[in-house]
Amino acid sequence: MKVILKKDFENLGKAGDVVQVKNGYARNYLVPRGIALAASERNMRILEEEAKLDARREVKNKREAEIKAGELEKISVTASVPVGEEDKVFGSVTAQDIADLMKEKGFEIDKRKIVLDEPIKALGVYTVPVKLHAEVEGRIRVWVVKQ
Questions:
Q1: Mean per-residue pLDDT for 113-141?
Q2: Counting CB atoms within 10 angstroms of each CB, which of 37, 41, 52, 131 has the fewest?
């Protein structure tokens, strides 16, 4: 039986591929789980329309991410941290801290989108990347100052 894959499937192929599988596998596993559809003209047209809608949605999301990245470029946040002798920072500034500071400024950003290789452990000015979309990255200026 020929089926059209609706989702990427590890052993069969990518979404939109038409593949040949055994009848029972298609009927009992792939179709009920929404992984595939029977390969008919009607289903091919439906899948093409869904692909067009997904492409439009993706373009819209990318455009919104680019606008938000432009807004983030103008923002800078200040993290006050306790310091000891010779300006040694106690603790560190993490992605969660930056997300909380951004929330105070009115920007809701998920801490998992803030790209920090490791927490900030020194005073200074840092440019921190924020992954807004697969292809769009914004930047925030973070000032780490004495408390």
A1: 94
A2: 41
